[in-house]
């Protein structure tokens, strides 16, 4: 594919409750129009790889915003802030959904937007992406990359921060959904993925799941030992094909680097 000039750097968005939060924003420099993607970071936090993902989307013709969901737990380095957020039990679902909705509004307000916005999340961000698909109106396509705890076996695990299991909102999903999973993952397990798929199928949802042998959790992440190049390349092709069909108004290459 032809290389696109992109612009990337820090931005500010209005999240839950009108709070101003930090985000990493990357987009092609031409006039567009460009579809938008909200990149929901994984449990470790808003880190280097998350920003790389945003730039990857910009390279492929998308405007991507990666909101810092832990910005209220600052100041400090992303690692320190992430550690504090995890120690406090993570971000409340209501707050995270407000931040995702605010990020979507940010994307649609840009002059180069084509009006369509997708959501993609990794690890806990995958769970939040599934939750967003069932609770935020206006999402045009959702990608759940190995989101754990979509199914909650013991309802006692639900609390004030996570009052509802994402699977219980499946009936409210109206956008196409893509799932990417490693068969060696411990959360979600292959059985949990099967059960999630069964609910989607039963409710007649527009979805597609892709599972990879020899891969576990975080197999897209080039900064981790879990990275699996062959599976990741194919998985990224699936992601871009999915978003291109559901968001894009251009006819560009979807080949992953």
How would you summarize what this structure contains?
This protein has 257 residues and is an alpha/beta fold.
Give an overview in words.
- The protein is of the alpha/beta class.
- α1 links the parallel β3 and β4.
- It is built from 6 helices and 8 strands.
- α3 packs across α4.
- The model is unreliable at 251-257 (pLDDT under 50).
- The protein has an 8-stranded mixed β-sheet with strand order 1-2-4-3-5-6-7-8, sandwiched between helices.
- The protein has a single domain (6-151, 161-246), classed as Alpha/Beta hydrolase fold, catalytic domain (Rossmann fold), CATH 3.40.50.1820.
- 46% of the residues are buried.
Which tags fit this structure?
alpha/beta; globular; Rossmann fold; disordered C terminus; 257 residues
Low-confidence stretches: 251-257
Distance N terminus to C terminus? Answer: 9 Å
CATH architecture: 3-Layer(aba) Sandwich
| Strand order, sheet with most strands | 1-2-4-3-5-6-7-8
Helix content percent band: 25-40%
Overall, the morphology is globular
Q: Looking at this structure, what is the CATH superfamily? A: Alpha/Beta hydrolase fold, catalytic domain
Radius of gyration equals: 17 Å
Regarding quaternary structure, how should these chains be classified?
single chain
The sequence of SSEs as H and E is EEEHEHHEHEEHEH
Mean pLDDT reading: 93
Beta-strand percentage range: 15-25%
């Amino acid at each position: 594919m032809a290389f696109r000039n992109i612009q990337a750097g820090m931005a500010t968005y209005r999240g839950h409750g009108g709070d101003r939060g930090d985000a990493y924003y990357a987009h092609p420099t031409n006039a567009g129009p460009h579809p938008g993607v909200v990149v929901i970071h994984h449990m470790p936090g808003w880190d280097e790889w998350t920003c790389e993902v945003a730039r990857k989307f910009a390279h492929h013709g998308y405007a991507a915003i990666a909101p810092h969901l832990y910005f209220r737990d600052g100041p400090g380095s992303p690692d320190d802030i992430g550690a504090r957020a995890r120690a406090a039990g993570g971000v409340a679902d209501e707050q995270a959904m407000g931040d995702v909705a605010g990020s979507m509004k940010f994307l649609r307000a840009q002059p180069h937007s084509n009006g369509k916005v997708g959501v993609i999340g990794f690890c806990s961000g995958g769970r939040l992406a599934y939750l967003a698909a069932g609770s935020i109106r206006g999402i045009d396509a959702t990608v759940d990359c190995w989101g754990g705890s979509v199914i909650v076996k013991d309802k006692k695990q639900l609390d004030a921060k996570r009052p509802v299991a994402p699977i219980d909102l499946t009936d409210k999903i109206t956008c196409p959904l893509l799932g990417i999973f490693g068969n060696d993952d411990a959360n979600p397990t292959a059985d949990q993925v099967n059960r999630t798929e069964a609910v989607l199928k039963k409710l007649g949802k527009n979805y597609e799941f892709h599972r990879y042998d020899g891969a576990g959790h975080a197999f897209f992440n080039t900064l981790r030992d879990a990275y699996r190049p062959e599976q990741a390349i194919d998985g990224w092709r699936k992601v871009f094909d999915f978003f291109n069909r559901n968001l894009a108004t251009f006819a560009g290459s979807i080949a992953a680097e």
